[in-house]
Design a protein that fits this description.
Length: 459
């Protein structure tokens, strides 16, 4: 009798290691999340091929929806105003989504052993990461500033050693952690699920509250707002699980279809207005960017300007001086110099409209609705589903008010944290059937598939 060969290393170890490194890399060098994601794909894929002698099955509605998006993105090369950027970003996007689909497929197949190892990695990574975040907040991000300054010196040796002020905003240096804190807000949800499963309530609640408070300490208002919205949806989904998918689906559909009209509803932040008291300088600047984005959307509504064409609209030579009035946040008037749209619109939906047109926006809507449907029908336990909706909402909110949709580190943080979550989902325990025989009995193969839909089909 041949003994089955055992594999001591599995993908739970690989993803568990990335979970340990996720927050530290995010807060100290957020762009490092992209190579971390790529490493996870390569090593997990090699392990699966070596173990199973076949490529992971990556079919499914979400994968096909992403495939359509990638296909349309590459087709936009034909009319893109920056065809080289479109082709380069399109190829990168194809590889990223393919890699993410591979990881998700592998994660969904995890057994209890792989899940346990990954859970250990998430627990340790969460405690390590939030401890480092607490230290950084109490030391004005000393370590993050030190690491970023040395990275800047490697790129440009002429950067003066005293130039730590480049990471400071009004004397606060913690904005250097903004990108990492956004990634941490996504990591919070799979970490919370593991805590709930492993810890008693008397330890779970204070631990999870401390983690949430640390995220709210971040300088970035976008992270705070998005995380808060995600927590609200989480609680609402837990207590009203039937309503939240419908509400989210309706809001997302209306929001995407009417997105080019929304910036016009905001007041002009360059003109004195008492309503501007509620806007921070960063939010006022975003509104200006969105208004400028709409101008370009109207020029090519149906097809857009081409994937990642936003980068080609303006350069440093096109910088404009903006004079903000003192009514903005009740602060003194100030001036800044920026391109009308700096690199990206800081809104994923508007970026889809601008670069891929109405067709691309509809494809994006299809992807989001497909994800909502998956959460509703495939994640059956109430807490798991509520956390899924919370994570989904936090991710979408951040995408709509902050980063560029095609940024590698941002897509990597989304796909990694989603993989963690999918991989550790709990399986509902089914009640034993009182039926002795038949298709649901204790020994269904003995009786065959009988009396199905009124037909006798015994073998």
């Amino acid at each position: 009798m041949k003994h089955q060969k055992r594999y001591s290393l599995h993908c739970g170890h690989i993803l568990g290691l990335t979970a340990i490194l996720y927050i530290p890399i995010g807060i100290f060098a957020s762009k490092g999340l992209a190579p971390l994601f790529a490493s996870a794909i390569v090593f997990c894929l090699l392990q699966q091929i070596y173990k199973n002698r076949k490529f992971p099955n990556i079919s499914g509605p979400i994968f096909y929806a992403l495939l359509i998006l990638v296909g349309w993105s590459l087709v936009s090369y034909l009319w893109s105003i920056t065809p080289d950027e479109t082709l380069k970003t399109g190829v990168t996007l194809s590889i990223t989504f393919l890699g993410g689909s591979i990881l998700l497929s592998i994660g969904k197949s995890f057994g209890q052993q792989e899940k346990k190892v990954l859970q250990n990695g998430l627990l340790f990574g969460g405690f390590l990461g939030f401890t480092l975040i607490a230290i950084e907040f109490t030391t004005d991000a000393w370590l993050a500033r030190f690491l970023n300054l040395n990275l800047a010196l490697l790129k440009n040796p002429d950067v003066p050693s005293y130039s730590t002020f480049i990471f400071s905003v009004y004397g606060d240096s913690t904005p250097v952690m903004n990108s990492g804190m956004a990634a941490t807000a996504l990591f919070f949800f799979p970490w919370a699920l593991v805590l709930k499963e492993r810890f008693p309530l008397k330890l779970f609640f204070p631990t999870i509250i401390v983690g949430a408070i640390l995220i709210f300490f971040t300088y970035a208002d976008a992270v705070k707002l998005s995380f808060a919205v995600g927590l609200i949806i989480l609680l609402a989904a837990f207590y009203k699980p039937r309503w939240i998918p419908k509400v989210l689906g309706l809001v997302i559909t209306i929001g995407i279809l009417t997105a080019p009209l929304i910036p016009g509803l905001f007041p002009n932040p360059l003109e004195p207005n008492k309503n501007l008291e509620w806007f921070s300088p960063s939010s006022a600047h975003r509104i200006l960017i969105w208004k400028n984005t709409v101008i370009h959307i109207k020029q090519k509504v149906l097809l857009g300007s081409g994937l990642d064409a936003t980068r080609g609209l303006y350069s440093s030579k096109d910088r404009v001086q903006y004079n903000f009035p003192s009514s903005l946040s009740n602060k003194a008037a100030y001036q800044i110099m920026y391109e009308p749209i700096p690199l990206h619109p800081h809104n994923a939906v508007l970026q889809l409209w601008l670069e891929l047109g109405a067709v691309g926006a509809l494809i994006g809507l299809g992807i989001l609705l497909t994800i909502l449907r998956y959460i509703k029908h495939k994640i059956l336990l109430r807490l798991d589903q509520a956390l899924s909706f919370g994570m989904f909402t936090t991710t979408l909110s951040l995408a709509c008010i902050s980063f560029g949709i095609w940024q590698g580190w941002w897509l990597s943080s989304i796909l990694l944290s989603t993989t963690y979550f999918i991989s550790i989902l709990r399986t509902p325990v089914e009640k034993n059937s009182s039926e002795i025989g038949g298709p649901k009995g204790l020994d269904p193969t003995r009786y065959g598939d009988w009396e199905r839909k009124g037909r006798a089909i015994d073998f």
